[in-house]
Design a protein that fits this description.
By secondary structure, the chain is of the alpha/beta class. Helices cover 35% and strands 14% of the residues. The chain contains 24 helices and 25 strands. The two termini are 17 Å apart.
């Protein structure tokens, strides 16, 4: 194993220790078992610590590595001492063996505690990228997605790591396809392989499985990139993500030619080792983009393209066929039947006709089967008759869509599930949809409970019917879903298959524009539909409007009359030239607008303009990857606002007006949600004057260090969640006045050394999550007054502090949080 740490302190210490351990293990047999264990631990640490050191060097944060260097120096002393102990000194051999064993355990513990989930390699990687962005944009705006949830969190933020693959894929052809594709990828040389088949046949699923194959991972290692291309590919964005994925400085790219040049430079940098690039879901119109990824200078470079279309210019082509008839019938029965003997055995002909209508495609079979699950076979026949009436033998895609559409017509008597399914199409293709945004939208559109429990249940119903996928990227919220309105869905994402989204768009595009209940618009450049740009439309009836613009959009918004809109979703991309996004003026006249979701889908953050158009009737606002003048929002009139969310935003804390006061602007705010906003250092004091505030969620904000001293004035607070605020060292004494707080989450607040002395006055405190509080070593005496405390979440080492309180607090349960006993998760 090579050790190439650029000669710096930590790298040198690590290299010296590793070399010393290997050498002494060979020459001193007495300590061979202990030294081999240390060598194994260091071997696991090597690629991780190299990456962390490099990135922290770029950030000028090497002081943070001092504890690791001290531990490595201690190890050198212990290993050197092995050479000084005489072979016949059994006592010293025994005691020193124990010291080596304890040292090995200490090294592992240090890496699992000092560098926990929210401060490992991905954290440093994203820190570096956001530092670069801030410098390049002259501190105008910034954003940071600290990698606290490791690879799965980065996947949710459009990282190019290979998504997780299912354990089992249906179909006899799967193993044969995997074997053939594996053989082609393991051959040396450069090639473009096209995996083609109809939509919903499992192409993407097969590639996920293949990329996680042991032999493929062994050959390509970290040089596997999984790129969703979609119908409107953005080459600039893809190239920038490829740079970030590989740990290089992200370039500013001003044109497509520039993007191609940067791409070739990147491929030459990483092409010393084999490279595997998956271009997933390439549309026929985007065939030319594949050419831009070809690089003849790399000797072992594989590109795998998945597409519904066969591209004649690229060979070889592998066809993934639908299931066999028998496999399709078996899958249908697995998804459709329940253990109910009264239903009897389904008619063979009935099953055959249904699966043929599904074109023997796994996705379509699952959706249709689950829409019939538990229904009597008479109902199956009724649906088959409808399919026979609407099917088309001339166009398989039309028939597939007809089949899927019929399966949505009857949702066990609950049409609301179909409405929720249709709403997913409001988000861009291949988008991982934040569940919090969905809940905000559904709560207002359908008058659901404001805590989102019914909305989340409806989403699970869609997932159970294979109409959506759900990805949960964080463990830190999984223990909060019990009672007292603390439901927290940050880190939860929904996805919709492209085939299903196409169905949604087709359904939404029916009928006259003015009468549609749901309007989904995808704009190319500055081209608006004629009915809009010519100002000929009547007032629109849509309650949900989604408008997506690409990076070439730059014009002013034409007026749009939306008297009935209740939820507005704005999806946009910005480039390095514009750097800004202007909210459309027509928002100001949308008097019934309740939910506004603004999402920047670009690599770089964007500055929002035109804030004055945000209306007084808004109840929920969600911002993602934008610069938000938080204090200047005090100039707005948001008297109906109940919840505001910021995700990966640069929250400007300067005000354009001395008179701007947040409590005057949003006096009825109930929930404040700030996640991955790394520039946030403190909350403005004015927040403490918003008396109805019930929930403060500040999570993964690594520079957040101060709660307002007046926080005790927020007597309505029920939830205080400060998860992964790694710079927070103190909770103000006034927190003791928060007598309605039921949940206090201080997990991963690594610098927090003490709880408030009078925490016992928080008499309704029901739960404390304090896992990862490294410096918190004792509890204040007043803790015994927390008679309603029901659950504490912490590590085993911290549980000893709570043990003696069990007699005083009989309802208290201590939930132990334990890390994996290995370091593999860091990779």
């Amino acid at each position: 194993m090579s050790v190439d740490f650029a000669g710096a302190a930590v790298g040198t210490a690590f290299g010296e220790l590793y070399s010393l351990v290997k050498e002494v293990a060979k020459t001193v047999a007495a300590f061979h078992p202990q030294l081999k264990k240390i060598e194994s631990t260091l071997s696991e640490m090597d690629p991780i610590i190299k990456k962390i050191y490099y990135l922290y060097e770029q950030l000028d944060r090497l002081k943070e590595m001092d504890p690791i260097k001290e531990l490595l120096d201690e190890g050198k002393g212990l290993v050197n001492k092995c050479l000084m102990i005489h072979p016949v000194n059994l006592y010293k051999k025994y005691t020193h063996s124990n010291k080596l064993t304890e040292y090995n355990a200490a090294v592992r513990e240090k890496f699992q505690i000092y560098m926990p989930l929210l401060a490992a390699r991905n954290d440093a990687e994203m820190l570096m990228k956001m530092e670069e962005i801030m410098g390049k944009l002259s501190s105008i705006y910034s954003s940071q997605a600290n990698g606290g949830a490791l690879q799965t969190m980065l996947e949710a933020l459009n990282n190019l790591s290979v998504p997780a693959a299912p354990n089992f894929i249906v179909g006899s052809e799967v193993e044969a396809s995997l074997s053939k594709l594996r053989e082609r990828l393991l051959k040396e040389g450069a090639s473009v392989i096209v995996l083609t088949g109809p939509g919903g046949c499992g192409k993407t699923t097969l590639l996920k499985k293949l990329c996680h194959d042991v032999a493929i991972e062994g050959k390509f290692k970290d040089n596997i990139m999984f790129v969703p291309v979609s119908k409107k590919p953005n080459l600039t964005d893809i190239v920038q993500k490829m740079y970030r994925h590989n740990g290089f400085k992200v370039p500013e790219i001003k044109s497509e030619e520039d993007a191609v040049h940067c791409l070739q430079q990147l491929l030459n940098k990483i092409g010393q080792n084999p490279v595997l690039l998956v271009l997933d879901d390439v549309w026929k119109e985007s065939e030319s983009i594949v050419d831009k990824f070809v690089c003849d200078d790399i000797k072992d470079y594989k590109i795998v393209v998945t597409s519904r279309y066969e591209f004649p210019r690229f060979r070889p082509v592998h066809h993934l066929n639908p299931l066999t008839h028998d496999e399709a019938v078996e899958l249908f029965l697995q998804c459709a039947t329940v253990d109910d003997r009264s239903m009897g055995t389904p008619d063979t002909r009935l099953l055959s006709e249904i699966v043929e209508h599904c074109k023997r495609l796994p996705l379509v079979i699952k959706v249709v089967a689950k829409s019939l699950r538990g229904q009597h076979y008479a109902f199956w026949r009724k649906k088959l008759n409808e399919l026979n009436d609407g099917g088309s033998l001339l166009d398989s895609e039309v028939e597939i869509n007809t089949c899927l559409r019929k399966s949505l017509d009857d949702m066990n008597g609950d049409p609301s599930i179909k409405e929720r399914f249709m709403d997913l199409g409001s988000f861009p293709e291949d988008c991982k949809i934040p569940v919090t945004a969905l809940i905000d939208m559904w709560v207002e559109l359908y008058r659901l409970d404001p805590n989102g429990l019914r909305a989340y249940t409806d989403l699970h119903e869609l997932v159970s019917r294979n109409l959506a996928d759900l990805v949960v990227t964080r463990r830190d919220s999984s223990d909060d879903h019990e009672s007292y309105s603390s439901h927290y869905y940050n880190g939860h994402y929904a996805q919709q298959h492209d085939l299903l989204r196409e169905l949604v768009i087709m359904e939404c595009d029916k009928g006259e524009i003015e009468k549609r209940d749901r309007l989904i618009l995808e704009l190319n450049g500055n081209e608006f539909p004629n009915w809009w740009s010519e100002q000929k439309q009547q007032p629109l009836s849509a309650r949900l409007v989604s408008i997506s613009t690409d990076k070439t959009f730059s014009t002013h918004w034409p007026y749009l009359e939306l008297p009935k809109v209740e939820a507005l979703i704005l999806n946009f991309q910005n480039d390095m030239q514009s750097k800004t996004y202007t909210l459309p003026e027509f928002i100001e006249k949308a008097d019934k607008l309740k939910a506004l979701i603004v999402t920047n889908h670009s690599f770089f953050p964007a500055e929002l303009r035109n804030f004055h158009v945000v209306g007084a009737n808004l109840r929920r606002i969600s911002f993602q990857r934008v610069t938000v003048p938080f204090l200047s929002m005090g100039n707005l009139c948001l008297h109906s606002l109940k919840k505001i969310s910021f995700f990966m935003c640069y929250i400007s804390q300067t005000s354009t007006s001395n008179d701007a006061k947040i409590p005057d602007a949003m006096p009825n705010l109930v929930e404040l949600d700030i996640d991955y906003c790394d520039n946030l250092v403190a909350l403005p004091d004015g927040i403490c004057e918003i008396k109805p505030l019930e929930k403060i969620n500040i999570t993964n904000c690594h520079n957040f260090s101060t709660l307002p001293t007046q926080i005790g004035q927020l007597t309505s607070l029920e939830v205080v969640r400060l998860n992964s605020c790694t710079s927070l060292s103190l909770l103000p004494d006034s927190i003791r006045s928060l007598q309605n707080v039921k949940l206090l989450d201080i997990s991963e607040c690594q610098k927090l050394s003490a709880l408030p002395y009078q925490i016992g006055q928080m008499v309704n405190l029901d739960r404390i999550n304090m896992r990862g509080c490294l410096k918190l070593s004792e509890l204040p005496r007043s803790i015994v007054k927390l008679r309603k405390l029901r659950k504490v979440i912490c590590e085993k080492e911290k549980a000893v502090m709570w043990g003696p309180l069990k007699d005083t607090l009989p309802s208290l349960a201590i939930s132990l949080f334990e890390e994996e006993p290995n370091l593999a998760w860091l990779e």
